[in-house]
Amino acid sequence: MKFAKYLLTLALAFCAFTSTSKAQTVAFLGGGSSALFQELGSATQYVPGVSCLWTHSKSTTTPNIAFTDARTGVGLDEAGQIFIAWGPGSGTCAAPTGTYSIYAYVQLDSVVGDRCYFINDGAGTGCVLKLTGAAGIAGSNLIGGADIPSGVLLPTNVANAIAGQHMFVAGTDIRPEDAQFAIQRALTRCDTYMPRQYFNNASYYLFGLGYQTGTNVGTAIQGNASYGGGTFNVINFNITGTDPITGGAVPTYQVSTVGAQPIVVAMAPNTDSQVAAMTDITAGTLTMFYEGLLGRTTDLLGTPGPAEAVTVLVREPLSGTYNTFEYSIPQSTQFHAGQEYGNCNGSGQVLSNPMALQNGGGVFGNASLRVRAIGTGNVTKYLGLATTPTLGYFFWSAGNAAGLTTVKYLKVNGIDPLLDTAHSYNGALPGSGATGDPGLNAVGFAGLNSGNYPIWSALRLVGPPGNAGVAAMITALGNTNLVQHDYITPSTMNIWHSHFFLNGQNDPNPANGPSLGTQTLCAGGAAESGGDVGGSTLLLSNNADFCHDFGSTTGKLNLTF
């Protein structure tokens, strides 16, 4: 009997040994924010032992690349471009052997990324990676213009290691609380007021978006075919408690701040005389363009005329970029407008999907439109291709700006979000290669880090508490940023957003957090929680002093733009 027990123990030990000594370790399997795709892809090459990189553009044929929401009654795919990075181990990039790590990320958007982290499909938490037909094919050179090494084919053992696995990291421009609210808003009738947050002893209300067709699964948001198309599903999720569809427990999570990054407002083409004359746009003017009340180039100061029609590119409502822009400018407590103004039919459902709505009362016929462009890649692509005046916005990064030689960025309310104090604004995107390009070394974010630029967000990774892959990626991102100047690092940030409680969520005690990098936000304070997209910009010193002087452990809360 003892001998049999010994054999059983030996067998179990052997199984445990073989399961933990697999050659591949999937250290990072994520998806979400398009603003983080370039940064994360570049950062993988700074992770020790990782030197191989394969990317592929969005595809639903061969290969078929998607994260699947496998919950009962859902079963929908979220397709997007992908990067996969790995180490050669004791072999080569083409044929890795021995022990090596894999880092992979699919570009979706922030709300979808958060959903794909928090769902519980009954077999596990997170969306499931579909990667069919990808092994053995060439990539698309999406990160910095080249896969590594050039022409590398995705090895079968790398593809097999991640295919069918549950996602466990979300990239997001907004807090999970804000992402959940974005879904709640999309699933609410567009002729119905819904409360967002408590404000001045009452509630701040705004209209729903009208994508509801069911309790948990709504109408998919479509991108305009002339601007890249694309589809994003509107599906409910929770960030605490249980899954609203399966009833399974949602995972615990930790939010890690990558850094602060501005949204850039841009016009193209700079070969147009009126666009070339533009330098600045006021927040009020920007609001009226995005709610469809303005549509002429002459609505910006300094344009010589005669008026030309402006095409306005609007991101999808599940984008962190969209939500950051929405609550910082048009849907702020100053303007109470919004990018979906007029996009509601008589039955409380979305009117134009994909969005194609006239601007400025139709003065220019169909020439001046608000149109839906899904994803950062489509916005930057079609700004770069524009032959008539086109207005758009995107999160700044060196990768997003590269090659945009005919695009100029605008100051907002007279504030430049990008340059350091030693360089003067001329509208050329740094690192774009445009005439007058000041270069990436000129990016110091002086206007942003002073607290004066209104449209910005903290980029974040959401993952299991203490996850080693997330920690390695954040360290690598810091090394990448020394070259690319993509964001203000947490250790050098002077600014933070005021957090707030969002109605309908199970977080009655929001907090600004105890620290940011090596800097104190609130001595002895509670962990960061609550919404913050559109929260007023605070200086870190303001919040820390408030906590000290008033004995607070939450910080200065419930302040909004």
How would you sum up this structure, described in words?
- This protein is an alpha+beta fold and 561 residues long.
- The chain has helices at residues 2-20, 37-43, 110-118, 156-162, 176-186, 273-277, 283-290, 320-328, 376-385, 398-401, 446-449, 468-484, 540-550, and strands at 24-32, 52-56, 64-69, 76-79, 82-86, 100-107, 128-132, 169-172, 193-199, 202-207, 221-222, 231-232, 254-268, 280-281, 311-314, 356-358, 369-372, 390-395, 408-412, 456-463, 495-497, 515-516, 519-520, 537-539.
- It has a domain at 496-561.
- The chain has 13 helices and 24 strands.
- α2 (37-43) packs across α12.
- The longest helix has 19 residues, at 2-20.
- Residues 1-21 have low confidence and may be disordered.
Task: Give the gist of this structure.
The protein is α+β, with helices and mostly antiparallel strands and 561 residues long.
List its traits.
single chain; 561 residues; alpha+beta; 13-stranded mixed β-sheet; 21% strand
Topology at a glance:
Layout: H1 2-20, E1 24-32, H2 37-43, E2 52-56, E3 64-69, E4 76-79, E5 82-86, E6 100-107, H3 110-118, E7 128-132, H4 156-162, E8 169-172, H5 176-186, E9 193-199, E10 202-207, E11 221-222, E12 231-232, E13 254-268, H6 273-277, E14 280-281, H7 283-290, E15 311-314, H8 320-328, E16 356-358, E17 369-372, H9 376-385, E18 390-395, H10 398-401, E19 408-412, H11 446-449, E20 456-463, H12 468-484, E21 495-497, E22 515-516, E23 519-520, E24 537-539, H13 540-550
Parallel strand pairs: 1-6, 1-8, 14-19, 15-17, 15-18
Antiparallel strand pairs: 2-5, 3-4, 3-7, 5-6, 8-20, 9-10, 11-12, 13-18, 13-19, 13-20, 16-17, 21-24, 22-23
